[in-house]
Write a structure and sequence with these properties.
With about 475 residues, the chain is α+β, with helices and mostly antiparallel strands. It contains nine helices and 14 strands. It has three domains: about 1-220, no CATH class; about 225-320, Orthogonal Bundle (Helix Hairpins), CATH 1.10.287.130; about 320-465, 2-Layer Sandwich (Heat Shock Protein 90), CATH 3.30.565.
């Protein structure tokens, strides 16, 4: 039971049923109150008409005992100001709710020394008082709506006429409406709940397919599988498409990690094997030990491990930091410390080249770009730093005068462990991680790294970074 109520369609059906139930109860109550008020008002109008008809007769001089009340099939009383009953319906047997329960009238006496008051005119009040009560007329008991109308200036003093109208129609109509509601409302609620259950079940059927497929993906660890996408344009279809996009991104990420591990293992195997061979030869024949070669392999192994560690931190989402860096000063400082470059480096910088990020990571990008340019240059390398005239960016450009990068390879060279055919020598070409690291750092700094043909021939790498806002501390 708890599991069934825990489903979305059960909760939706229950919620819809409760909402409709509350609406039906409110609407039914309003209808019953309106119906009762309307019918009660009609009964009051009928009672008022009957009371005024009798009051008009009294006002025109008719004595109370001379009133013709035999035609009245409703309870009527005429009471004086002392509460004495002067006239009543002939078949009236019992009454309450009018102020006096007397049903047998007493003899009316005029106020003017025996004058019966014939011909005297009275005044009928414009006001009507209403009350609820019951009466028995000719053996039939019922509830009534009573109207009380006063008649002033009669020979018998101030008289009050009470006339009633039955509430049988009002009670019957309200009872019939209530019975219809008590029968119809539950049926309607069952229909609403059932329809909501079926509609929700149909709407959520694709969700169950998505859940089942995701469970299969989890069990099989086959990221190539995809969830079914319904042929609709609703939220469920968008959920399925987003799920498939997530699976595709996850598959690509896992495949990328697998290639990364495989390539890293391959790249690490070569310097480790070379170093081991040299050490084994040196252990057997110390005079043959190639110390410079061993040191070179160790340095290369150290650099490769550092590159792999930086890529791992970048993949883990390491934030670049929020320090403000003067990119022009950084370039001048880093290039002044380089030694052993085979080609000269020409530097040109302009002021106002402030960016936000990690000084260490930006220095690593600069070093990787200059190293790459040194490997391919024939005569020299040019490095420029300048803010863009418009666009709010700072551009670091590194150009060489080599053969350049073929247009078809300009994106592939930023992939990890990728080296072009003329740069595959491990002695001079590296492991193919420098440009990949530079692109990742640029992206995490909110910038871009692209390559195109240099104006004078060769390759031109451009690092574009958002310019820093003024007011931060420069580090």
């Amino acid at each position: 039971m708890g599991r069934a109520l825990g489903s979305v369609r059960a909760r939706a059906a229950l919620a819809a049923t409760l909402v409709v139930a509350v609406a039906l109860v409110a609407a039914g109550t309003a209808v019953l109150l309106a119906l009762r008020t309307n019918l009660t008002g009609q009964a009051g109008s009928a009672a008022d008409a009957g009371a005024r008809r009798v009051a008009t007769s009294l006002a025109t001089g008719t004595a109370p005992d001379a009133l013709d009340l035999d035609d009245e099939d409703r309870p009527v009383q005429v009471v004086d100001e002392d509460g004495r009953l002067l006239a009543a319906s002939e078949d009236l047997e019992r009454i309450d709710g009018t102020g006096t329960q007397t049903v047998k009238p007493v003899e009316a006496a005029a106020d003017d020394d025996g004058d019966d008051g014939a011909g005297e005119r009275g005044k009928v009040s414009d006001a009507t008082d209403y009350s609820a009560g019951s009466a028995t007329v000719d053996g039939d008991s019922a509830d009534y709506r009573f109207a009380a109308v006063e008649v002033e200036d009669t020979p018998y003093g101030e008289l009050t006429v009470h006339a009633g109208a039955p509430l049988t129609a009002e009670q019957g109509a309200v009872s019939s409406a209530l019975t219809a509601m008590l029968i119809g409302f539950p049926v309607l609620l069952v229909v609403v709940g059932g329809v909501t259950w079926l509609v929700t079940r149909r709407a959520l059927r694709p969700v169950e397919g998505i859940r089942a497929e995701m469970a299969a993906v989890t069990a099989s660890q086959d990221l190539a599988r995809r969830v079914p996408e319904p042929d609709t344009h609703d939220e469920v279809a968008r959920l399925a498409r987003t799920t498939n996009e997530t699976l595709a991104a996850l598959e690509a990420s896992v495949e990328r990690q697998r290639r990364f591990v495989a390539d890293a293992s391959h790249e690490l195997r070569s310097p480790i094997a070379s170093l081991r061979t040299q050490l084994e030869v040196g252990a057997a024949h110390p005079e043959l030990l190639d110390v410079p070669g061993a040191v070179e392999d160790t340095v290369r192994l150290q650099e490769l491990a550092a590159d792999l560690l930086l890529l791992a931190r970048l993949d883990a989402g390491e934030k670049p930091g929020g320090a403000e860096v003067d990119l022009a000063a950084l370039v001048r400082e880093e290039l002044s410390q380089r030694t052993g470059d085979p080609h000269p480096v020409a530097v040109r910088t302009r002021g106002g080249a402030h960016v936000t990020g990690s000084r260490g990571q930006l220095a690593r990008v600069l070093g990787n770009l200059v190293d790459n340019a040194q490997r391919h240059a024939r005569g020299g390398v040019r490095v420029t730093v300048a803010p863009e005239a418009a666009g709010g960016r700072v551009v670091l450009a590194v150009a060489d005068d080599g053969d350049g990068v073929p247009e078809s390879e300009r994106e592939r060279i930023f992939e990890r462990f990728v080296r072009l055919d003329d740069a595959r020598s491990r002695d001079g070409g590296g492991a193919g991680l420098g440009l990949a690291i530079a692109r990742d750092v640029a992206v995490r700094h909110g910038g871009t790294l692209t390559v195109r043909a240099a104006p004078g021939g060769g390759a031109l790498f451009e690092l574009g970074l958002p310019a820093a806002q003024l007011g931060k501390t420069v580090r």
